[in-house]
Write a structure and sequence with these properties.
By secondary structure, this protein is of the alpha+beta class. The protein folds into 2 domains: about 1-75, no CATH class; about 90-460 and about 525-540. The chain has 17 helices and 18 strands. A 3-stranded antiparallel beta sheet has the order 1-2-3. A 3-stranded antiparallel beta sheet has the order 4-5-6, with no helix packed on it. The longest helix has 29 residues, at about 375-405.
Length: about 550
């Protein structure tokens, strides 16, 4: 049976036939109610049952009469595949989320009207576009749709341009890693974002491109961007590229970025010939400077992933030597144990997102080395000895991280955990080679994690507008007082996460425990859903 209740802020439904997690559902905020403020004062409710001759996918509907107008809530049965197609159309509106091939959220000039949403430059254009491209790579790998390949390759070429617009060196190699092309510039330094010089007046954070007089790029590129670039190019190389030339182009970008860091004393050095604010992997600062103690494990994980991934494709011993140096002389393997800081005031959802991209990247490198036909047996044996030591520290840190991330039921974090922990076919085979007949145990079972991810995607709202939310006075919410007290944004945080359709829209780098945020003037791009869905499809976690 179902019971509907009206209130000052919206309506609630109790369904005794649903699972505990779905039994109570709350429909408030402008996502459902006809008012941008919190109070709507529901005065009357009517439930309209489905006609017998109606399509099976059509459910019941609710009509709520409020002091601010009429609210109609209609239920339909959708597959996750249909929802993915729905979100893909968000990229079809020019300049809404895709401008110059860069993908990110957009800001609206009219409250709640996505037709007025226009994408501008974003500090993390490189990261967001890399994550969107990865979703399309998995989509192409599943569907083998030529149109998907063409569209995805356009976004790759934008990222390629982002690597070149700052004047970067472009190095192309043949199958024997012989240098074919060399252009002078800043080697391996991608811009944060790019734009036409005519798009807006001169800005001190933007710099004219030395290779294209019509373009400008945003500098001070961060480790966030580099993590995104290093995450996606191996996927381009392995799953999207259709010939040797395309594979070389993807490989060249990985090689250039990692070489830049390796040859600049473990820093990312930018347009001012000094290291950027966050492009730091140098062991002296990472290990000895207390300012970086919270990112010590994360940055150690990142640079090791970069080095192993580049070695897997190049066979250049400099990269394996660099990894061995950081491990043996500076304890970067031990640093991985405490990758996630777990103190009340040290929660950083952006770092969590970057860490899981790096976990994927590192284990993908392990798999690539193990299955390589280009590396010699001596090279693979040497690398495997280092990997065997590193894997144990990485797994401890991964499991500690997932104690917290699994509570969020995120399909993104869960599918990457399944991959990195060795519970899907590719990485399971790598784990078998390490352990032989020894039975491997996992802290979290992927069947349960997949079910959590499916629930999350089922409850994902169909629109991604960042509606203002009013949840803190709900009786079913327990406020996390210590976390709220040290929240720099002064937002109230709950102990348990609300379902995604009862709170504001979030990327994976944002807190899912916020209860009262949002403003109705921005819209997220659909990458968070698309990467989760197609990643789970590719790794057979939705069967």
């Amino acid at each position: 049976s179902r019971v509907w209740l009206g209130s000052i802020r919206g309506v609630m439904r109790f369904d005794s036939n649903s699972t505990d997690i779905n039994a109570w559902r709350v429909f408030n905020s402008a996502r459902y109610m006809p008012n941008r403020e919190s109070q709507v004062n529901v005065t009357s409710l009517a439930v309209l049952s489905r006609n017998n001759d109606a399509p099976a996918s059509l459910g019941s509907a609710l009509v709520a009469i409020t002091s601010k107008g009429l609210a109609v809530i209609r239920f339909e049965m959708w597959t996750l595949e249909r929802k993915a197609k729905h979100f893909q159309t968000f990229l079809d509106q020019p300049d809404r989320h895709d401008k110059y091939g860069l993908v990110s959220g957009c800001d609206m000039t009219s409250w709640g009207d996505s037709r007025t949403c226009v994408k501008g430059p974003d500090d993390n254009d490189g990261l967001w576009t890399s994550m969107y491209l990865s979703s399309q790579i998995f989509r192409y790998a599943v569907t083998q749709d030529a149109a998907v390949k063409i569209s995805a390759w356009r976004h790759f070429e934008t990222l390629e341009l982002l690597n070149q617009v700052s004047g970067s060196v472009l190095k192309l190699y043949d199958d024997d890693f012989t240098l074919l092309l060399f252009l002078i510039g800043i080697s391996g330094y991608p811009g944060r974002s790019l734009a036409k010089r005519s798009d807006f007046p001169p800005d001190p954070h933007w710099h004219p491109s030395p290779i294209n007089s019509t373009l400008q790029f945003k500098g001070d590129t961060s480790s966030d961007e580099i993590t995104g670039h290093e995450f996606v190019y191996p996927l381009v190389h392995d799953l999207l590229a259709g010939n040797d030339d395309e594979r070389r182009r993807a490989y060249a970008l990985v090689l250039n970025i990692t070489t830049h860091i390796l040859t600049h004393d473990w820093y990312l050095v930018g347009e001012n010939h000094t290291h950027t604010t966050w492009g730091i992997w140098n062991p002296i600062q990472i290990n000895n400077d207390s300012y970086y103690q919270e990112s010590r494990g994360l940055n150690s994980l990142q640079i090791l992933a970069f080095l192993f991934q580049t070695y897997a494709y190049s066979g250049d011993e400099r990269f394996l030597d660099g990894a061995q140096l950081l491990i043996e002389s500076y304890g970067y393997d031990v640093n991985l144990i405490n990758q996630k800081m777990i103190a009340t005031c040290d929660g950083d959802f952006s770092d969590d997102e970057l860490a899981y991209l790096a976990y994927f990247n590192l284990v993908h490198a392990f798999y690539t080395i193990s299955s390589s036909t280009k590396l010699s047996s001596t090279q693979k044996t040497r690398a495997q000895l280092i990997i065997d030591d590193l894997w144990e520290f990485m797994k401890v840190g991964l499991d500690l991280s997932h104690i917290y991330k699994q509570m969020e039921k995120s399909p993104f974090y869960n599918f990457i955990y399944c991959y990195a922990s060795g519970q899907i076919n590719q990485t399971r085979n790598v784990l078998k080679k390490r352990n032989g007949s020894k039975v491997q145990s996992f802290d979290f079972d992927c069947n349960s994690l997949s079910n959590d991810g499916i629930w999350y995607m089922q409850r994902w709202p169909l629109e991604l507008i960042n509606w203002q939310q009013f949840n803190s006075d709900r009786l079913d919410i327990q406020i996390n007082v210590p976390a709220t007290a040290c929240n720099t944004h002064q937002e109230r945080l709950s102990i348990q996460m609300l379902p995604p359709d009862e709170r504001s829209t979030k990327k994976w780098n944002s807190a899912v425990y916020d209860v009262d945020d949002g403003n109705g003037y921005s819209e997220d791009d659909p990458t968070a859903f698309l990467l989760s869905y197609w990643g789970m499809r590719y790794f057979n976690l939705l069967e």
